[in-house]
């Protein structure tokens, strides 16, 4: 398979993607607070280079969003399981007490963070970069040398986190060999499925067809996903509200806040209820979005509203759960308003149609 030609502006697009990824994944959730924004220097190499690398590999394969999400899960396993080793640590962040451990892993923390990384650390930044550079959305940003550089920076970024954050927060802990081997095997399996098993998309060039009008979008015929009928695409603002509820709700079900020791203020075995609820939310949201994007009524405005809603929901949760002081809450709220303003500007300059993979 021939590698698609590298388009003009690809480096700028890759730089944007590398910068916004840690901002979305960490800063807009309140990790760290703006008063300690310099800590972002520790996260930029692994986050930025990791997401750029994932996008480049998928675009060279002409893969779609399923491949991106699978590699996003693999990224989460690398960061949380191999680098920080928080998936298995009995002491880091106090997450071992959230729920019963399973196969040596902190179950609730694992359920929270792996999908979080797939969506907020990988998929949403790539989606926003695609919207910011619509003519490049189906093409790699970099030449092979750039891909190699991204891979090297990603590895070095992981080592940087390992020798700084991990050793300072959880000194002396080393994950068992069986856990490390399992993480490596899971990463390899996800990568193989994402890049070799899932078929390439049908189109090789960006879609340039005119977008449906709002009336056409709202009247789009229902689609069928896995033999089940999915309704017509709702309006962009409805999709945005849906994104807010899913983004906030998933985090609120799994991340203890407000003084709670376990998710959703549960105790003991009752933690299984919010964990099951979060799984249902994730599966239902994925099924609905898959059905909506498969219809002819899905537009770039829907994509932007979905991404924006999820980001607003996750920043709102950060204000509630992560911001420790009133100053932190006000600063994070202000950052959220800036984020909304930038998303609105992006909405004004983006074309209307977006291909679904």
Report on the structure:
The protein is an all-alpha fold and about 350 residues long. It is about 60% helix and about 5% strand. It has eleven helices and four strands; from the N terminus they run αααββααααββαααα. The longest helix has 26 residues. About 5% of the residues have low confidence.
Provide key terms for this protein.
globular, two-stranded antiparallel sheet, 4 strands, 62% helix, mainly alpha, 357 residues
Summarize the structure.
The chain is mainly α and 357 residues long. The chain is built from eleven helices and four strands, in the order αααββααααββαααα.
Q: How many DSSP-defined strands?
A: 4
Share of helical residues:
55-70%
The radius of gyration over CA amounts to 20 Å
Quick one: biggest sheet? 2 strands, antiparallel
Q: Which sequence of strands runs across the widest sheet?
A: 1-2
Q: What is the structural class?
A: mainly alpha
Residue windows where pLDDT falls under 50 for at least 5 positions: 203-221
Strand content: under 5%
What is the arithmetic mean of pLDDT?
Answer: 89
Overall geometry comes to globular
SSE string: HHHEEHHHHEEHHHH
Q: In angstroms, what separates the terminal alpha carbons?
A: 19 Å
User: What count of helical segments does DSSP give?
Assistant: 11
């Amino acid at each position: 398979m021939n590698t698609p030609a590298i388009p003009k502006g690809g480096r700028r697009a890759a730089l944007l993607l590398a910068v916004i990824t840690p901002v979305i994944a960490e800063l807009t959730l309140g990790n760290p607070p703006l008063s300690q924004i310099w800590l972002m220097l520790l996260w930029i190499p692994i986050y930025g280079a990791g997401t750029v690398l994932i996008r480049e590999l998928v675009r060279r394969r002409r893969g779609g969003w399923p491949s991106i999400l699978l590699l996003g899960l693999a990224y989460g396993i690398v960061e949380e399981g191999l680098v920080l080793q928080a998936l298995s640590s009995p002491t880091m962040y106090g997450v071992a007490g959230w729920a019963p451990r399973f196969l040596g892993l902190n179950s609730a923390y694992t359920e929270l963070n792996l999908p979080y990384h797939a969506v907020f650390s990988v998929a949403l930044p790539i989606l926003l970069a695609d919207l910011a550079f619509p003519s490049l959305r189906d093409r790699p940003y970099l030449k092979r040398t750039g891909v190699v550089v991204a891979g090297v920076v990603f590895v070095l970024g992981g080592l940087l986190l390992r020798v700084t954050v991990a050793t300072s927060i959880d000194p002396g802990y080393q994950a068992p060999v069986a856990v490390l081997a399992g993480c490596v095997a899971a990463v390899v399996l996800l990568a193989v499925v994402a890049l070799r098993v899932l078929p390439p998309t049908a189109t090789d060039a960006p879609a340039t067809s005119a977008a449906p009008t709002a009336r056409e979008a709202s009247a789009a015929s229902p689609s069928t996903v896995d033999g089940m009928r999915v309704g017509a695409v709702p309006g962009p603002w409805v999709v945005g509200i849906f994104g807010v509820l899913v983004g906030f709700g998933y985090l609120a079900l799994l991340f203890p806040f407000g003084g709670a020791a376990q998710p959703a203020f549960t105790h003991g075995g009752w933690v299984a209820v919010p964990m099951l609820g979060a799984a249902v939310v994730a599966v239902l949201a994925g099924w609905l979005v898959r059905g909506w994007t498969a219809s002819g009524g899905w537009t770039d405005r829907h994509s932007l509203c979905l991404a924006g809603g999820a980001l607003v929901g996750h920043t709102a949760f950060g204000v509630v759960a992560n911001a420790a002081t009133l100053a932190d809450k006000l600063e994070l709220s202000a950052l959220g308003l800036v984020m909304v303003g930038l998303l609105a500007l992006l909405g004004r300059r983006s074309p209307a149609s977006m291909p679904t993979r």
